[in-house]
């Protein structure tokens, strides 16, 4: 046998490319994808066509212009689109910092497909859903240990919804105390997630944003200057998107409490902290965890998901209803919370995510959860040291260790080669690797944010680093290969901005595209 | 090796850790936590049960789940915001694909398929509602309605929202909490005989400070609101917007709200291919016309189609991204984040499978089955179904007041017959007496409905 020399650090990758038509182009009149259950003959005899009871003005006159496509064609189309999607199961997904893309255990997916889970109606009598309620309650107990909070609601179905629920609780709390109008400001930090500021603003608050000191720490003097009798609350992530932990957090929460505000903690990503430090000891009144991040539920292209919301005893009565209680050997839904904000989402939130995260916690146990945090931090610091050695890469602010992620910068690379972080992003696609830059704030120049989590092995990290190294080398030696990237993607470079930002050209649906393309042709 | 390595944490291997620590220049992993002050470090182990292996975990969770009784085991007549419908196998096949299940925030060049699938979802639903713009889905119907009214507030520059009193009370809670303190809400009464909106009450409350009226069709209480055009006319006179919440599975047979003047249409995607999942299948949509003023007020992501440098290739991206909170924090429109994208893709698969005929057939079968159920239930002495005179779609109110029994008693009796009876309305709408909201869909057979009628008879005669 000949020795096959596969001695390469990066991958010779090619994304699937099917050049799929838009589904409407698969239309063939007469074809059929599925047959819904038909009406029983005797029912049709008894009641007629059913539709003529409706006033004519309320009947649909012509059928919706949906395509007619045979089942195999529909399946094939969507399977091909799935192949043109780089899910985290397929790549070393450490490029989506802040989002904790970790391994999604398959056993949990198997468990949620149990018909005794899938086919439950949310209004079934409590006696017929004791198992489901038990899982909700047990997850609540685990979350209390992880956070130090006293009660959890799993109704918010995403991080933004949990943040919104917390801002709603802040408002209700001050209203109950007769200070609703006076307390009109919420304080946050610039490196906390944009949703913190956005959701507080939806709830009618003026936002005060603290900028960091020269080392990247939230500035305590600025906080002291910001609090007043107008302070309703303080919301922050710790560590923030930079991976820098604010060691004075307890002083921060005290300053806000002394001014009469509520402190709520964005723990969407808590991956470096499990079993290490908690919301309670840092002085927070509320916190939330994204179960689809730290707690290993899948991201599902962007939901459905859960933002598990925890509060101290003092705020229990403000939670959205219902919450699950265990009383007299039975699990029950409790609706009568005196100051409840009402509801943020229908029924009980996303039960599958609750089950998945409970299963994940049970598969790790207390020691395993702490290992998750420790290895996530180990992996991150290993990457941090390796990335800082790549020509053109840097990371602003404090030297020393970071927790679970780092916001890096290619500022030097851009200065020296003209290659930007967006260029790097497109080139990373050629290695089968996802790479994200940053959301607001755009303070760190030429940013990219890596978060390796506990899920990836040293080999995986080395592969990702090797791709970054190669791109850096190309930037200095052969920048054209980057500028013309991606080379191995599903599609070529798009003619984006004008078609996405110009109302005359944007097309949010196929029917809109057909109209605008026709108009364009006739001009 | 003394320490056990967990299957999900490869770098627990001690030799690997040592190698990595050497690169970092640290002796232990604990050193990396030197930034956290001791006083806030957790000293003791968390009180969480010890780890289970995969097999033990399966036993543990399945033991819990076995205490549940699913709607697949009993005959289920509960609806009220989450409905049991037929789900084609291809829907599950697609949404269980690893690629879609585990994708998240990939760029259009890595996740072309995700972008296309969501663009197609927007396009397919657009045909159903007969409008040109549909968003990447939001959390649920309640959130979709809550955002729709906030959009209306910004578009009109007005603060007051009128909500039909027949809007699901649980949904109203979401809407009101989401809009306050910015918006004010007032309820418009319904007629106790027909369920229809009381137009006199509407006229009395419809002033120039009203941004929008929101009602649902078919309504939460089941009936079809047939006064859409009249309501729209009244609103146009005051330059207020009409927002209609809709059950999309009705739109093969019922006129979409855009045909009777709706400016914004919203609703829940769960009927279009999602299992009930104890409410985990909900997902909200918001549709509008291709009007810049409306599009710029959407907080959601909107995927658009674009050409690439290669002729014949489709590309996709975010339309008007600068609207969003991702781009502008508190200055963006409301907020955006992880919502329910996979259910959007699934609803797209469902509509592609059903096609124009399937969606019409399913709507018709639902109406026939539910009318048959009413016919049979109405034969029972002292029972009035449907309470309202207006035609209904898949849900209807059954009034048991004259039987002298409470809904609680009746539902307990039905449960003993392995039936989940309708939702008890006596708390939400005391004015309707001892009434329950029953839901009948295409999945109910004639036998199921006959069994319900026979069981009710038995329970009432007890």
From TrEMBL, chain A:
<dbReference type="InterPro" id="IPR015422">
    <property type="entry name" value="PyrdxlP-dep_Trfase_small"/>
</dbReference>
<dbReference type="GO" id="GO:0016594">
    <property type="term" value="F:glycine binding"/>
</dbReference>
<feature type="domain" description="Glycine dehydrogenase C-terminal">
    <location>
        <begin position="373"/>
        <end position="477"/>
    </location>
</feature>
<keyword id="KW-0663">Pyridoxal phosphate</keyword>
<dbReference type="GO" id="GO:0005960">
    <property type="term" value="C:glycine cleavage complex"/>
</dbReference>
<dbReference type="InterPro" id="IPR020581">
    <property type="entry name" value="GDC_P"/>
</dbReference>
<keyword id="KW-0560">Oxidoreductase</keyword>
<comment type="function">
    <text>The glycine cleavage system catalyzes the degradation of glycine. The P protein binds the alpha-amino group of glycine through its pyridoxal phosphate cofactor; CO(2) is released and the remaining methylamine moiety is then transferred to the lipoamide cofactor of the H protein.</text>
</comment>
<dbReference type="Pfam" id="PF00266">
    <property type="entry name" value="Aminotran_5"/>
</dbReference>
<dbReference type="InterPro" id="IPR015424">
    <property type="entry name" value="PyrdxlP-dep_Trfase"/>
</dbReference>
<dbReference type="InterPro" id="IPR049316">
    <property type="entry name" value="GDC-P_C"/>
</dbReference>
<dbReference type="Pfam" id="PF21478">
    <property type="entry name" value="GcvP2_C"/>
</dbReference>
<dbReference type="GO" id="GO:0030170">
    <property type="term" value="F:pyridoxal phosphate binding"/>
</dbReference>
<feature type="domain" description="Aminotransferase class V">
    <location>
        <begin position="157"/>
        <end position="298"/>
    </location>
</feature>
<dbReference type="InterPro" id="IPR015421">
    <property type="entry name" value="PyrdxlP-dep_Trfase_major"/>
</dbReference>
<dbReference type="GO" id="GO:0019464">
    <property type="term" value="P:glycine decarboxylation via glycine cleavage system"/>
</dbReference>
<protein>
    <recommendedName>
        <fullName>glycine dehydrogenase (aminomethyl-transferring)</fullName>
        <ecNumber>1.4.4.2</ecNumber>
    </recommendedName>
</protein>
<dbReference type="InterPro" id="IPR000192">
    <property type="entry name" value="Aminotrans_V_dom"/>
</dbReference>
<dbReference type="GO" id="GO:0005829">
    <property type="term" value="C:cytosol"/>
</dbReference>
<dbReference type="GO" id="GO:0004375">
    <property type="term" value="F:glycine dehydrogenase (decarboxylating) activity"/>
</dbReference>
From TrEMBL, chain B:
<dbReference type="GO" id="GO:0004375">
    <property type="term" value="F:glycine dehydrogenase (decarboxylating) activity"/>
</dbReference>
<dbReference type="InterPro" id="IPR015424">
    <property type="entry name" value="PyrdxlP-dep_Trfase"/>
</dbReference>
<dbReference type="InterPro" id="IPR023010">
    <property type="entry name" value="GcvPA"/>
</dbReference>
<keyword id="KW-0560">Oxidoreductase</keyword>
<dbReference type="GO" id="GO:0009116">
    <property type="term" value="P:nucleoside metabolic process"/>
</dbReference>
<dbReference type="InterPro" id="IPR015421">
    <property type="entry name" value="PyrdxlP-dep_Trfase_major"/>
</dbReference>
<feature type="domain" description="Glycine cleavage system P-protein N-terminal">
    <location>
        <begin position="15"/>
        <end position="453"/>
    </location>
</feature>
<dbReference type="InterPro" id="IPR015422">
    <property type="entry name" value="PyrdxlP-dep_Trfase_small"/>
</dbReference>
<dbReference type="InterPro" id="IPR049315">
    <property type="entry name" value="GDC-P_N"/>
</dbReference>
<dbReference type="Pfam" id="PF02347">
    <property type="entry name" value="GDC-P"/>
</dbReference>
<protein>
    <submittedName>
        <fullName>Glycine dehydrogenase</fullName>
    </submittedName>
</protein>
